[in-house]
Amino acid sequence: MAPAGTDDPLAIDPPPEGRITGHRRRVQLADGSPKGRLRLDAAARMLQDVSDEDTTDAGFPLSEPWVVRRVEMLITEFPVFRQHVDVSTWCSGIGARWAERRVRVEVVEGPGLVEAAALWVHLGAQGRPTRLPDSFESLYATAARGRKVRARLHHEPRPPEGSEAWPFPLRFTDFDMMDHVNNAVSWEPVEQALAERPHLRAPLRVSVEHPAPIEAGSEPQVAVADADGGFDLWVLVDGVACSTARVRSA
User: Fold this and answer.
1) Going edge to edge, which strands form the sheet with 165-167?
2) Between the CA of residue 245 and those of 5, 29, 80, 87, 134, what are the distances in Å?
3) Do domains 9-144 and 165-249 have the same CATH topology?
4) Is 1's pLDDT higher than 80?
5) How are beta strands 240-249 and 98-107 bridged, if at all?
6) Model confidence at 226, in pLDDT bands (50, 70, 90)?
C-alpha cells in the first residue's frame, strides 16, 4: 500500500488518503512557445504556484520559506495554448529538513500530461535548512505513506573540459522575494537549448537541480553538452554550477 520503497517518484500516483490540493488554470499567452506548446519555464512556474498555494493554505509563515533543491519532470505530451489544465499536488516523501511533492499538470479535455516531483528544503528564519515544523507530520504524512527521501544531487557538477559557455544576463524580473534568481528562471536556458534541437520533442524527461542560489550581482554563464538522446546544461557563476539540467527523450 505504501510507496516506501519506490525509487522513481514519477511512478507514484495520488494517494488514496491524505492531503491533495490543486486548481484549474489555462495555458496563457505568456506560457506558450511560438507554436503554442507549454514552455518548460512556464511549467516550472505552475509547479511553483500550486506548491506555494498549498503551503500558504497550510499556514506556513513567510519567515520560514521553502526552496527548491531538484525537480524531475516527465512530459508525456505538452499542453498547448488555451487548454485548461488541472494542476494537483501531494506529498510523496519526507526527510529531516526537506520534503518531496508530486505535481500533476493534466489537460482537462485532451492527452496533454506533465508529471513532476520536486524536492523542497525548509528554511528557518536565519535562511538555513531546518527541521520540518511540528505540524508537517499531521498534514502530510498520510499522503507520503512512509516514503523517505534524501536531498542528494545526481548531475555532473561541471561541464566537460573545454566546453564553450556564453553569458546569461540577469534582469530585475528574474529575482524573487528571497533576492535570489527564481528557480523557474533556471528553466529558461533549458527551454532555449530545447528549442535549438527540434529533433527533441515529447515524450521528454527533464531534471533540474540547484546546488547553489544565483545571487544579485552575479554574472552567470551557460554551458551545454549534447548527449545520447538529449543534452546536459550548466548555469555557472565563477565556474561553479548553481543550476544543472539533464534532458532526455523518454
Assistant:
1) 20-26, 84-94, 98-107, 113-122, 66-77, 204-209, 240-249, 230-237, 221-227, 165-167
2) 26, 25, 23, 23, 33
3) yes
4) no
5) unpaired
6) very high
Q: Domain map of the chain by residue range? A: 9-144, 165-249
Q: What is the dihedral of CA 12, 101, 69, 48, to 10 degrees?
A: 120
Which helix (H) or strand (E) is 57 found in, with range?
Answer: helix 40-57
* Mean pLDDT for the stretch of residues 142-149: 96
The owner of cell 536556458 is: 189
**Nearest residue to 230 (alpha-carbon basis) of 247, 250, 207:** 247
pLDDT at 63 exceeding the cut of 70: yes
CATH second-level architecture of 9-144?
Answer: Roll (3.10)
The helix-helix angle for 40-57 and 188-195 (nearest 10°) equals: 150
Could you list the beta-strand ranges (E) of 6-136.
Answer: 20-26, 66-77, 84-94, 98-107, 113-122
CB neighbours of 135 closer than 8 A, spacing ≥ 6?
A: 58, 59
Cα–Cα dist 141/9, whole Å: 16
Task: Provide the grid cell at 209.
Answer: 537541480
**Which pLDDT band holds residue 62 (cuts at 50, 70, 90)?**
confident
> Is the pLDDT reported for residue 210 higher than 70?
yes
- Does residue 106 contact residue 84 with C-beta atoms inside 8 Å? no
Please check whether the domain covering 165-249 is classified as CATH 3.40.1650.10: no
Model confidence pLDDT, tens digit, residues 69-90? 999 999 999 999 999 999 999 9
Question: What pLDDT digit, counting tens, does each position of 234-247 carry?
Answer: 999 999 999 999 99
**What is the Cα–Cα distance from 152 to 76, expressed in whole angstroms?**
26
